[in-house]
Protein: Glycosyl transferase, family 8
Amino acid sequence: MCGAQRPCCGYDLSLKHSRRKAPTMKVVFCIDDNPRYLLMLRVAVRSLRLLHPDITCVCVYAGDDTGVMDAVREEGVLLARYRPVLDATTIPAAFHRCIGCFLKLELALVPELAAESHVLYCDSDVLFRRPLDDLLALRPPYMGMAREDTAPFFHDHAELDYMWRGRRYVVPLPFPIWTYSSGVVLFNLERLRRHDHVHNFLAFCAGNVQRIGNLDQSLLNYFFGKRITKLDPRWNCPPYRQAALAEGHIIHFHGPKPWDTGQALWRDLRINHYGVLREEWLDWLTSEERSRVRVWEASTHEA
Ligand SMILES: [Mn+2]
Structure:
């Protein structure tokens, strides 16, 4: 089975047997009912466990599908069922197809995480390849995120506003802005819980989701702006980056997922180490899972 101890990724496995202290920070994922994300979660957790066997993984889920819940538990992940503030009534219908991406914005309110001062949030489309100790030792004042490889840009709005408890608040936007990726976020939950901060943020989200470009990621970037702590690129490294294989600790399948070998849309991003890292991702699957992925992959080659 895929959980085999593969001497992958240049990580010295002998370290596993030394008395390394188990990291106490929890690693949190969020999923919705999309079966592709559930399978990606499985691979993420399996690859993480090879590096940190004792780490606690939590999955936040807002749905009711018992199949999804059983699968999460079967993978040894603590399931946190949660009724989000940003739900189908506060988020416009145009975004319901990817409503799961907003869950990460509410981690400070999840009861199962109430005792945590910091957590590491990761998208499920990640592959862990090297130990996380240096990352889990960080304590950013609000949140730590790595930058996307995109040019800085200018906002359409000079400021955004929102209402909270009958008062209007204004958020000036930094010009120009470099975009941080929301695929890996080290959250300071304690800070977000203080002074109603998270509720202000969620009021901002509900009021501005229609005025921004890129869902949860833009909401984090626009509201927190310069308060975001920059993480080293190795903690959120897409396969298409030249340094991915040599330096990536967390590989983030940003853009084409491991089965997206067909669409012309992603051609420009299936470069550098996409092929190698996709194979490595596939190695974590059982044969039954692999055949499911082959069907997804074949569908990307249809006109
Ligand atoms: Mn992602």
Confidence is low (pLDDT under 50) at residues 1-14.
